[in-house]
Specification:
Layout: E1 4-5, E2 9-16, E3 28-35, H1 41-44, H2 48-52, E4 55-57, E5 64-66, E6 73-77, E7 82-87, E8 91-97, H3 102-111, E9 136-137, E10 140-141, E11 146-153, E12 158-162, H4 164-167, H5 175-178, E13 183-193, H6 205-211, H7 219-233, E14 241-245, E15 251-253, H8 254-263, E16 269-271, E17 277-280, H9 282-288, E18 295-296, E19 299-301, E20 308-311, H10 317-335, E21 344-346
Parallel strand pairs: 3-6, 4-6, 5-21
Antiparallel strand pairs: 1-2, 2-3, 7-8, 8-13, 9-10, 11-12, 11-13, 14-20, 15-17, 16-17, 18-19, 19-20
The chain binds flavin-adenine dinucleotide (FAD) and uridine-diphosphate-2(N-acetylglucosaminyl) butyric acid.
Length: about 350
C-alpha cells in the first residue's frame, strides 16, 4: 500500500527492495518514490529530503549491489512509452521513456524494421540505465545509437538534454557515473537505421548464426543469435541472483598486456580504446585464480562464468562485497592487475 499517491507519483515508506535488485539481496529504503510522470520531478526535488539528501535512482536493479540499506530516497521512474519522433524511411529517431524495459525496446525497434540495437538484445534493466554505463555486448555499445539523453538536472532543478559528446561515453563509463548525484535520466532518443548492415564479427555470433542455418542475417536474426548465446552463458537472475559481469574488463598499458601474454600464452587480450592500451579478460584472470564455481554460504561465483557473482539464496550484500574483494585481491596478487566492480555499490564502498 502506498503511503501517499497522486496521479503523478506514489510514495512508500520503509520499502522492501528485495525484488528490486537482481542479486535478490534483502534491503529496505526509508522512502521509495515511484514517478509515473516526469513533469513531477521539479516539484518533488523541491522537497528538502530529495533536494538535499541522497537519492538513488533505481531501474531494474540489475547493476547494483545493495551492500547495505540505501540512505535517503530511492526514486523509480515508471513511464513506459516508446515513440517514433522522426522517420525518413532510411533512418529514424526513436524516443523511449526511462521506465521501459530495455529488451522490450530492442524488440519494438526490430518490429519496426529498425536496426542498431540487435546486438544488445536481452540485456536486463531499463532504458534509463542504458546510458549510465554505456551498456555493451557482442561488439556494440549503446553510444553507437544514442541521439540524445533527456534528464532532470538536480543542480539546476530543470529538465535538460545531453548530446552524445556531453555524455562522455567510454567502455562501461559515462558522465553519469562520474557525477552520479546530478542527473535523473527521464528518456533516451536513439538514431536507428532501416539498412541491414549487421555486426556479426564478435566471437561466437557468426558461428551461432551458422548453426541456425542463416548466412545473410537480418537484424532480428542477429538478436535471436545473441539471445541464444546469452541464455547459454549467463545465469538467469530469475533462477539465481546475479548482476551479470561483476567486474569490468581491465584496461592496461600495451606493455603490461604483452608481459601477460609472454607469461601466459593463452591469456585473452583485446584492443583497448587506443593503440597504447589493451583490454584484458577479467573472467580469464579470475578463472585462473580458481574461483569459478566457488561457494561460501550463499555467496558464490557462477560455475558457468567466472565473472558472475551469484546469490544462491540468502547471501547478504555485504557477503557478496566481501567475496568480490577477496577475488580482486587474489587477481592482483597473482597477476598485478587491479580489477574493479561494474555494478554500483550502494550502502558500502569498494
Ligand atoms: P539499475 O541496476 O537499477 O541501476 C544501475 C545504475 O544506473 C545505478 O547507478 C542507478 O542509480 C543508475 N540509474 C538507473 N536508472 C537511472 C535513471 N533513470 N537516471 C539516472 N541514473 C539511473 N550490462 C552490459 O552493459 N552488457 C551486458 O551484456 C549485460 N549483461 C547482463 C546480464 C545479466 C544477467 C545481468 C543481471 C546484468 C547485465 N548487465 C549488462 C548489467 C545491467 O543489465 C545493465 O547495466 C543495465 O543497464 C542496468 O539497468 P537497470 O535498470 O537494472 O539499472
Ligand atoms: N573466460 C574465461 N572463463 C570464464 C568465462 C570466460 O576464461 O569463465 C574467457 C573466455 O576465454 C573469453 C573471455 O573470457 O575469451 C571473454 O568472455 P566473454 O566473451 O563471455 O565476455 P566477457 O568479457 O566475460 C563481456 C561483457 C558482458 C557482455 C559480453 C559479450 C564486461 C565486463 N562484460 O563479458 O557484459 O555481455 O562481453 O559482449 O565487459 C555485463 O556487463 O554485465 C555483461 C554481462
Amino acid at each position: 500500500m502506498p503511503d501517499f499517491a497522486s496521479s503523478q507519483y506514489r510514495i512508500v515508506e520503509n520499502a522492501k527492495l528485495d525484488a528490486r535488485n537482481t542479486f535478490g539481496v534483502a534491503a529496505r529504503a526509508p522512502m521509495l518514490v515511484e514517478v509515473a510522470h516526469t513533469d513531477a520531478l521539479p516539484e518533488l526535488f523541491g522537497y528538502a529530503m530529495l533536494r538535499e539528501g541522497p537519492v538513488l535512482v533505481l531501474g531494474g536493479g540489475s547493476n547494483v549491489l545493495l551492500a547495505g540499506d540505501p540512505q535517503g530516497v530511492v526514486l523509480a521512474l515508471t513511464a513506459q512509452s516508446i515513440a517514433l519522433v522522426e522517420d525518413d524511411g532510411d533512418t529514424a529517431i526513436v524516443r523511449a521513456d526511462a521506465g521501459v524495459e530495455w529488451h522490450a525496446l530492442v524488440l519494438w525497434t526490430l518490429g519496426h524494421g529498425l536496426a542498431g540495437l540487435e546486438n544488445l538484445a536481452l540485456i536486463p534493466g531499463t532504458v534509463g540505465a542504458a546510458p549510465i554505463q554505456n551498456i555493451g555486448a557482442y561488439g556494440v555499445e549503446v553510444r553507437d545509437s544514442i541521439h540524445a539523453v533527456h534528464a532532470f538536472d538536480r543542480t539546476t532543478r530543470t529538465m535538460t538534454s545531453l548530446t552524445p559528446a556531453q555524455c562522455a561515453f567510454a567502455y562501461r563509463d559515462s558522465v553519469f557515473k562520474h557525477d552520479p548525484d546530478r542527473y535523473v535520466v527521464t528518456a533516451v532518443e536513439f538514431r536507428l537505421s532501416r539498412a541491414t548492415r549487421v555486426r556479426i564479427d564478435y566471437a561466437g555470433v557468426g558461428d551461432e548464426l551458422a548453426a541456425m542455418g542463416i548466412d545473410t542475417p537480418r537484424a532480428s536474426q542477429v538478436a535471436e543469435a545473441v539471445c541464444r548465446i546469452r541464455r547459454r552463458k549467463l545465469p538467469d537472475p530469475a533462477v539465481i541472483g546475479n548482476a551479470g559481469s561483476f567486474f569490468k574488463n581491465p584496461i592496461v598499458p600495451y606493455a603490461q598486456a604483452e608481459a601477460l601474454v609472454a607469461a601466459h600464452a593463452h591469456a585473452p587480450v583485446f584492443r583497448g580504446a587506443d593503440d597504447d592500451t589493451r583490454k584484458l579478460s577479467a573472467a580469464w584472470l579470475i578463472d585462473q585464480c580458481g574461483w569459478k564455481g566457488f561457494r561460501e554460504g550463499d555467496a558464490g561465483v557462477a560455475p558457468s562464468h567466472a565473472l558472475v557473482l551469484v546469490n544462491h539464496g540468502r547471501a547478504t550484500g555485504a557477503e557478496l562485497l566481501s567475496l568480490a574483494r577477496r577475488i580482486a585481491a587474489s587477481v592482483h596478487e597473482r597477476f598485478g592487475v587491479a580489477i574493479e566492480p561494474e555494478p554500483r555499490i550502494v550502502g558500502g564502498s569498494w
